[in-house]
Amino acid sequence: xxxxxxxxxxxxxxxxxxxxxxxxxxxxxxxxxxxxxxxxxxxxxxxxxxxxxxxxxxxxxxxxxxxxxxxxxxxxxxxxxxxxxxxxxxxxxxxxxxxxxxxxxxxxxxxxxxxxxxxxxxxxxxxxxxxxxxxxxxxxxxxxxxxxxxxxxxxxxxxxxxxxxxxxxxxxxxxxxxxxxxxxxxxxxxxxxxxxxxxxxxxxxxxxxxxxxxxxxxxxxxxxxxxxxxxxxxxxxxxxxxxxxxxxxx
Length: 250
Known about the structure:
Shape: elongated
CATH class of the largest domain: Mainly Alpha
Number of strands: 0
Distance between the termini: 16 Å
CATH architecture of the largest domain: Orthogonal Bundle
Strand content: under 5%
Helix content: over 70%
Radius of gyration: 22 Å
Order of helices and strands: HHHHHHHHHH
Number of domains: 2
Number of helices: 10
Structural class: mainly alpha
CATH superfamily of the largest domain: MetI-like
């Protein structure tokens, strides 16, 4: 089993290594692309060292993570709670279905003008954009999880005289956990994208703001550093949720 995992890990890094070599040859060795259009590997490495040495990169990472986690927390509280209620109480679901169907397809970035008007410049707009982007995937996954609860479990609980509250806490919620985690896994990727968009327009800190500022100054090396950092954060979150899913399903 361990040998299979090692082989799988080696296969995963083959393509990234090939792309890095091609990138180095094109931009650094042969200089086929001007640095102001796309930086070479050396420029990105130098920018990374400067950002780390100044402490700015870690500060921006913490700012972005704070917004992501805060927005995800709010979206999870609302999405999971409302999802369980809508999934269990059919009449309430029918009442809210049209409103959810209208709001759900609206891109989170469409809320940016209102987020700035309502919350000003700073953490508030980014958190609101993250919330709007994440709440619906979590909500829909939770509703789906409630709907997929085994009817046999529900009938067994009813035969033992379980109340509505006992049914929800001891049958419905545990059965819905795998679907909720799947919704959270999807939502975290959306949260990162929403954060960067929000920070570029309605914030004065974070990775998104750093990317925007670097681009305006034609510091393409720092821009790519910001992009790669977001990618690494996404990989870390994806790994965490994948491990949680493995624990749940196995």
